[in-house]
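To: structure desk
From: M.T.
Subject: fold request, one chain
Message: Could you run this one when you get a chance? Sequence is below, nothing fancy, just the single chain.
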Amino acid sequence: MGLFGNQFSDVIEWREFRDDVLFWKWSNQEIKKGSRLIIRPGQDAIFLYNGVVEGVFTQEGSFEMESDIIPFLSTLKGFRFGFNSGIRAEVLFINTKEILVKWGTKSPVLIPAAGLPGGMPIRAFGTFTCKVADYDVLIEKIAGIRQQFTVEDVKERIISSLDQLLMKWIAAKGRDMFNLQQNAREIGDGIREDLDMEMLSIGISIPSFTIANFNYPEQVQQMAEKAAAQSMIGDMGRFQQAAFGEAIAKGGSAGDMAGMAAGFAMGQQMAAQMAGAGAAQTAGGQAPYSQGNAGSGQTQHGAIPNFCPNCGAKTNGMRFCGNCGYKLAE
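Reply: Done. Structure tokens follow.
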């Protein structure tokens, strides 16, 4: 090829391609004779000449500038490389992938709620996807003045709008303030529509936006857990009967039955504490069993003994023995 055959050749490529970068601009001083363009999977290449789009190349591969690229450019079709001359142009590489991004509110968002003058402080977390949608708008608004644009840049723009959008769509779709997760999909769809419209103004679309979780203040979460526990313990008797029946049908061992009974006893103690530990007494303070027969474990019709006549365990006023499951009263 001679002494100077590759002296001015160059390779135009996005060598350090990263999934978290939406575009990167190759902006060497000149494209020389003998240069090649390399387009990798997940990339498009846009030729810019004097700030104007000359051509968009979407096919991956390696291409000769002089024979494969120049003939297809809008205003440079007749350009011929001289010995020392080159093209002062830029090549914008676009990441064509749809990128998944995690998001979370930086601080609690105060959502208006009845009875709470300051609103309910709520945090939210989830994911969204983004991709380059309009090359012309992207070049006009962003690429003309930036060397690259990252997912973090997109995330920063989205987070800055998120508080207001959460307030808007929770008010529109959050029918139950204390069960927002039930309406998370509708709230997320509404936020996605608004974000997509906003981000398209810079050439980027938001194909999806999901809310994985709403976090309430710790006191509200504790109240919800307590209410759920009370609801569960209210049916402890029926649950105990069903569980023992299922264990017997499956041929449960004595050890399994003893462990189950211990668990039920703990649950019954919780129930007694939450009920004030006085539900087993009458208004006059007299126990609803025969005082004369309490020690022997004998009962009158409908009365509950202090101790189980089957195993001798303390009954705590329950209708079934927490140790062996024996029925104590009709």
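Reply (cont.): Residues 20 and 151 are 5 Å apart (CA to CA). Let me know if you need anything else for the meeting.
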